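Risk register update: the risk of archive-format incompatibility is retired. Evidence:
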Amino acid sequence: MTKREKVAAFLKRKDIEFSWKRYFIDALGAMAQGLFCSLLIGTIISTIGKQFDVAVLTEIGGYASSVSGPAMAIAIGYALKAPPMVLFSLAAVGASANALGGAGGPLAVLVMAIVAAECGKLVSKETKVDILVTPAVTIFVGVALAILIAPPIGDAATAFGDLIKHATTLQPFLMGILVSVLVGVALTLPISSAAICAALGLTGLAGGAAVAGCCAQMVGFAVMSFRENRWGGLVSQGLGTSMLQMGNIVRNPRIWIPPTLASAITGPIATCVFKLEMNGAAINSGMGTCGLCGPIGVWTGWMETGVTPGAMDWIGLVLICIVLPAVLTWMISLPLRKIGWIREGDLKLS
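Archived output:
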């Protein structure tokens, strides 16, 4: 056996796979779940507590939000199939990377957790003092790297996010289309639009465009596929995820046209007509109607910035998040069905 073959065999035994899927689909998707189960749900609980003056809910929400770094890192380790000692050690890595990464904390956590998890897996169960070696290596590698490069990563992510937000302010029509379409497409793809928005700190007018795009995909697919999937499909896609259609998209990419065109329409309407802004947690920008997190994030932003929403604000929120995606996607799909681009059963969920 050659040296290369030995290395390959060792990496296979350690379940270390250098691939786009493992690091940018599995890990990113898991990170979004960790972020949802800490920062996002904590924000929702604390917001309810503040609005109804229930101190215990505010306190619970604060505690949940405070562990977002460890939650993301552990979720990433789980996606990378890290053994228990590595998995538990990633809590320290996530805490340090998230704190040192500033506004770009989620992106720093993604990078540090991946590197630390893979290094921890390399030494796991290779010595007789595994209980000392594995956590020491995992924590040292992850935290040391966080100290060195998390701040620059955070600065870069913040700068890029600020660039998008500034460009959206200057060119709300064009950027409204671009942000809405790209973030909406990311939501349906097996990657995490929520994690991307969180990593870039995508809020403000750009966050509103992102909300529009995500809602267009989820509500659009839910309504467009109602004849095939009925009420179960309406709920699972409209309140769950449009990612359920990914298999059908691979088989017939044309079914993606109606919700994507709808997002290209609702995006600039959000930015130019209703001036819809996401001033809540950035992760909400990439959630769409998943658990109604997108609309709840907009509402949370109103409360946190002291904005008293008027009738037009509420009308805009409902139109952008629910009504327009449903109507536009359904209308665009009709001629595509008529010419045979979308056939009966193409949108059926298994």
